[in-house]
């Protein structure tokens, strides 16, 4: 008698687990779409923060010099360097 009671409970638990698994897998998930929108805006922000750094050249007394300048922050990044 005790074995049939255990089998009944086991069958009931297995059936409940199967139903629960079906409900979980059939539920729609909307979190992915909102995360992708946040990710896109983050990538755009990161791209827009890249520094615009270029060399500035000048000729003085027949010699050429160069110096690094950051146009994003409007600051010099190096001293004048003699190149020729």
Protein traits:
four-stranded antiparallel β-sheet; 2 helices
Series of secondary-structure elements, N-terminal to C-terminal: HHEEEE
N-C termini distance: 102 Å
The helix-and-strand class reads: alpha+beta
The stretches of 5 or more residues where confidence is low (pLDDT under 50) are none
Q: Kindly provide the radius of gyration, computed on alpha-carbon positions and rounded to a whole number of angstroms.
A: 34 Å
β-strand number: 4
For the sheet with most strands, the description reads:
4 strands, antiparallel
Q: What would the principal axes of the Cα set say about the shape?
A: rod-shaped
Helix content: 40-55%
Strand content: 15-25%
Mean pLDDT: 79
User: Total number of helical segments?
Assistant: 2
Helix and strand arrangement:
Elements lengths: L1 H25 L4 H18 L4 E8 L2 E8 L4 E2 L4 E2 L2
Summarize the structure.
By secondary structure, the protein is of the alpha+beta class.
3D architecture notes:
It is a single chain. The protein is an alpha+beta fold and 84 residues long. The protein is 51% helix and 24% strand. The protein is built from 2 helices and 4 strands. The protein has helices spanning 2-26, 31-48; strands spanning 53-60, 63-70, 75-76, 81-82. Strands 1, 2, 3 and 4 form a 4-stranded antiparallel sheet that branches. Strand 2 and strand 3 form a beta hairpin. The longest helix is centred in the N-terminal third of the chain and has 25 residues, at 2-26.
């Amino acid at each position: 008698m005790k074995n049939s009671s255990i089998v009944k409970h086991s069958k009931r638990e297995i059936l409940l687990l199967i139903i629960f698994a079906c409900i979980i897998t059939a539920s729609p998930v909307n979190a992915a779409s909102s995360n992708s929108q946040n990710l896109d805006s983050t990538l755009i922000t990161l791209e827009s923060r890249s520094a615009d750094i270029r060399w500035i050249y000048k000729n003085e007394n027949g010699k050429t010099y160069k110096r690094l300048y950051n146009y994003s922050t409007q600051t010099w990044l190096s001293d004048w360097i003699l190149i020729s």
